[in-house]
Amino acid sequence: MYVAPAHDPMPTATLMLEAARSIGVPTFDSPNGAMMEGDGGAAINDLRIRDGKRLSVFRSYTYPRMAQPNLTVLTGAHVARLLFEEDRVVGVEVVLNGQPRQFRAEHEVVLSLSAVNTPKVLMQSGIGPASTCRVSARTTRTTCRSAASGNTARRSRTSAMAARKRRCTGGFYKHFGSKADLMAEAASCGIAQTLAKSDGADFTSFTQQYLSRRHRDALGQGCTLAALGTDAGRQPEPVREVFADGLERLLAALRPADGEDAALAGETRTRQLATIAQVVGAIVLSRACPDDSPLADDILAACRAAIASPPAVS
Q1: Which domain, by its residues, includes 36?
Q2: Average pLDDT score over residue span 155-172
Q3: What's CA 124's distance to the chain center, in Å?
Q4: pLDDT band for position 10 (cuts 50, 70, 90)
Q5: What is the 3 state secondary structure string of 41-93?
Q6: Taking all residues of the chain, what is their mean pLDDT, rounded to a whole number?
Q7: Which residue has the higher pLDDT, 227 or 62?
Q8: How far is Cα 180 from Cα 118, in angstroms, rounded to an integer?
């Protein structure tokens, strides 16, 4: 099976890794391997994308073998329960086009219905915690043998309830009080990276570098203001507070260039705010254009020209 790391992860993904690392959560290059064998941690998911197309397990494994005489694929079939002969599973009952049908197995039955539906079918068949299983006239099992069978489904329901209450539970998320806290920490780490890159830079040099094609195309390493600005307005108050504080710190960190007129260099707060609003907006609009569109470069060039030759102030 083809699996590869994300080629160009979104800025929010890399920032969440930085947020995890900043509070002591171990981070990994891949979620597979050492992370799975250890006590967990944080990593950007590996992807199954080749030549710009997502690869499904069905397309990789099943579709090339559709012509085999020993393979039949039924769509619209909902597995309802397992069929038993004494203690042996001999088939499944499915609902196909609204009607119940039974299929018997000659050798074995393999359940592969995800982390939620597999224990669900087991419990519907009478296998699982006794408090959860419900025996009906159509259920062939009258006892529940394994209390562990429903644990996965129960954990999934717990996670869903925690999400509704805006609480984070388990693994990576247990280190944060809420999703808002996680996003705020990620935004803080990203803004710190932006400040580190701009440390000691004069305002004019910062804006020219900011409006470069290199910065526009560096989605994973670019400025947090442009990466998160369009989304920050929809976030909870803690995230917006971090965002506003980061903007203030950026303004304070930028200094006028040596030998330049203070007003043109953006020393005043009004001039700096107006210029940053211009350059962030230009990057966002340029990134929104198709890669081969001349408009993407024209936006950056127009903004550079406007900043280099500001209108005269009377």
Answers
A1: 11-65
A2: 41
A3: 33
A4: confident
A5: CECCCCECEECCEECCHHHHHHHHHCCCCCCCCCCCEEEEEEEEECCEEEEEE
A6: 76
A7: 62
A8: 32
Model-level pTM greater than 0.85?
A: no
d(CA 287, CA 224): 14
Residue type, 250: L
d(CA 44, CA 214): 23
Half-sphere exposure of 192 (CA within 13 A, CB side): 10
Q: Which residue, of 97, 130, 160, is where some domain finishes?
A: 160
What domain count does the chain have? Answer: 3
- Across the range 5-28, mean pLDDT stands at 83
* pLDDT score of 155 more than 50: no
Instruction: Looking at the structure, tell me whether residues 128 and 209 fall in a common domain.
Output: no
Token pair for 75: 């769509």
**DSSP bridge partners of 96:** 77, 99
* Residue 193 and residue 18 in contact, taking contact as beta carbons nearer than 8 Å: yes
Please check whether residues 90 and 149 belong to one and the same domain. Answer: yes
Cβ(219)–Cβ(7) under 8 Å?
no
Contact of 283 with 223, CB cutoff 8 Å: yes
Q: Do 255 and 183 fall into the same domain?
A: yes
Kindly state whether residues 204 and 278 are assigned to the same domain.
yes
Residues 219 and 113 grouped into a single domain: no
Residues 155, 189 within the same domain: no
